[in-house]
Amino acid sequence: MPESARLTSHLTRSTYAMVLAGGRGSRLHQLTDWRAKPAVHFGGKFRIIDFTLSNCVNSGIRRVGVATQYKAQSLIRHLQQAWSFLDGRFHEFIEILPAQQQIDEERWYRGTADAVFQNLDVIRRARPEYVMVLSGDHVYRMDYSRMLAEHAASGADMTVGCIEVPVAEARDFGVMAVDASQRVIRFTEKPAQPDPMPGRPDVALASMGIYVFNAAFLFEQLLRDADDPKSSHDFGKDLIPHAVQRYRVQAHRLADSALGQPDKPPYWRDVGTLDAYWAANLDLVAVTPELNLYDHSWPIWTWQPQSPPAKFVFNDDGRRGQAVDAMVADGCIVSGASVRRSVLFNGVRVHSYASVEDSVILPAVDIGRGAVLRRCIVDRRCVIPPGLQIGVDPDADRQRFHVTEKGVTLVTPEMLGQTVHFIR
């Protein structure tokens, strides 16, 4: 076995990953009224958190904690169903860590650093040499073992995963300035004037919310931060800027560890707005999508119901069951209806003469006979009445539904006056 492979194997076995999955994602509006952002459905059969957890498992990191907080039941149930296959007898596990007010009975997680601090006892029991802190609400494919190997070789105390973004868009991120050796010399959270990359004035290095720490260093910094009354207990706002000024912090580019097409920029999406969520899902129906879900060497793991195959019925003029430039999951029935440039999750039923275009339809939606949907996101278990038109008249839609600035319409059961008794 090559030395690099032995090193990577040792590094991943010596690493504990903490996935922060407690956020609501308020910019997704009513789509996160009943579920945390990491539990939102994505890509026809997955949840957003499946991408981070699949990166862990595929990279060889098999000791993972998932910190939950906001409306976590949907997420917890998904984790129990989809991610219970690791065998604890071999010290491999994905452990659910709900907010438990462990430090103070009157205090929930106050920030990202505090969420890790409140679970220090769990991490210490694993006795890791390295700790990865990951966000559970982004969509990307990345080999974390490459980042770990680079971190160990650099002798850094901490490494920050980063992606190149246009300077004009960098104001929404934590931005790093680096020297020629990729050492971070300055870190600013959501700066008004982002630092550009050396020799590239139009591009900045933005944090992806992915961090590697030497375990002892992380414990020391979390204890110091917890005792600081002026801190907001956040990695981007407090802990990283403090570390950059005093210790060795390295930058690791996603391009060095991403899995994708070599001639294209690495794929990473923050699907934190309805428009971004809609666009990222519809990107998947392209002939050659930037996110390749069909790469068997790096599968995205999930739970899925035991459903029959998708079915398309009727072949009459004007009543033909068909889907073009679309992804249709198991259990769907397209009955004499037309589906174009859309993503249908499992168990969707589209009745005769209905038309669905440029839409994202979440699981178990029933679309009535003759209904028309254009540029929609339809939440789970909605029942679309026969003949209802959505996405045709934006002014009419705004009276009942949520319409984004770019004209995407979100539809939920509550907006349709329907009561749904289930965990979403």
If you had to describe this structure to a student in words, what would you say it looks like?
The longest helix has 12 residues, at 215-226. It is globular and about 70 Å long. The protein contains 10 helices and 31 strands. The strands form 7 sheets. Strands 1, 4, 5, 6, 8, 9, 10, 11 and 12 form a 9-stranded mixed β-sheet that branches. A 6-stranded mixed β-sheet has the order 18-21-24-27-31-30. A 5-stranded parallel β-sheet has the order 14-19-22-25-28, with no helix packed on it. β4, α3 and β5 (93-98) form a beta-alpha-beta unit. The protein has 2 domains: 3-283, Spore Coat Polysaccharide Biosynthesis Protein SpsA, Chain A (Alpha-Beta Complex); 311-416, UDP N-Acetylglucosamine Acyltransferase, domain 1. Helices cover 22% and strands 27% of the residues. With 424 residues, the chain is an alpha/beta fold.
